[in-house]
Amino acid sequence: MSTHINAPEGAIADSVLLPGDPLRAKFIAENFLEDAKCYNEVRGMYGFTGTYKGHKVSVQGTGMGQPSLSIYAQELFQFYNVKKAIRIGTCGSIREDVKVRDIILANGACTDSALQNQRFGNLHYCPVPDFELLYTAYNKSKELGLNAVVAPCVSSDRFYDSNENWKLWKKYGAAGIEMESAELYTLAAEFGRKALTILTVSDHILTGQATTAEERQTSFKDMMILALETIINN
What value does the mean pLDDT take over residues 134-159? Predict the structure, then answer.
């Protein structure tokens, strides 16, 4: 039985968007979904289900970091039989050609997380998204005229990285630093589900440019529309 999502059977769609910020989940439900109903408020981690262009879609906050996302993603996959999950989040760019407000479609997720060590020990698993979701998102980004780049992200457990490990990730082609995607991709693989991460660059580690907390919560509408268009066309 799910202990962190208090939703009755049938309340959650098989297609779910996963913002880290529960207030972003509320914003999406109020601005993009029709007839949205709240199915979860446990620990303030809002979840809503409504329709988008006639398709049933849910949106569930996951909190920050891989341990928090792991709880919600596993419960969605294991107890609510969610088939498709798209993380919509923010990241810090570590590449000169990826600017603030650009979109990253994460075709892989490097990580420093001990969660992977607990699973695989000395083995090195490669967390990747579902290709069909990625392919659809890429084509939809072109249709919508969005500046989207397909590149690996880094899911770090440490937000304030005084060791500047991002420099090594940058050398090997990673485009952005965030905190959740590697765990989402790994859980999707474990449960045989489809997952993708779509990120908006909220700040730039190289230049210091950044967006405000309010902008991150409410203004990244291109990413939200792209995720919704992707999940209903897949």
Answer: 96
Between CA 216 and CA 209 the distance in angstroms is 13
Under 8 Å between Cβ of 50 and 57: yes
Q: Give the pLDDT score at 217.
A: 63
pTM summary value = 0.95
Q: Which residues are catalytic?
A: 203
What integer is the mean pLDDT of 78-96?
Answer: 97
Instruction: Report pLDDT for 185.
Output: 98
- What HEC string does the chain produce? CCCCCCCCCCCCCCEEEEECCHHHHHHHHHHHCEEEEEEECHHHCCEEEEEECCEEEEEECCCCCHHHHHHHHHHHHHHCCCCEEEEEEEEEECCCCCCCCCEEEEEEEEECCHHHHHHHCCCCCCCCCCHHHHHHHHHHHHHCCCCEEEEEEEECCCCCCCCCCHHHHHHCCCCEEECCHHHHHHHHHHHCCEEEEEEEEEEECCCCCECCHHHHHHCCHHHHHHHHHHHHCC
